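Now read the record:
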Amino acid sequence: MTFLEYLDRRHERALRHPRRPRDIRQLIGAAFLVGYYLMVYHFSQRSLPAENLDLIRDAMLTLGPPVGLIVGAMFRSDAREEQQTANTGEAFRAVTAVAQNAPPVARGNLPPANED
């Protein structure tokens, strides 16, 4: 197989299996997580002055839970949105099926309108 044949086959495979759109929330969540742990690693590898230890401990305890909540919310919202989209599609198909199977309404079969 030549290089050009390989590129042709790769292009054909890409057309058969389109990629999902990228979600920037995953990148932001990963950046928060990596940044937090890089900060923890950086502080754990250096000797720190004793007067700064309380400040650093408080910063870590303050930043840890929000970073975890942000990352968790970003990854959880993807699954929730996909499930909502699937549910909406199922509801639309059900309404369409009911509308197609409903008997046609003749003009004479309509109830009289209330004229108040």
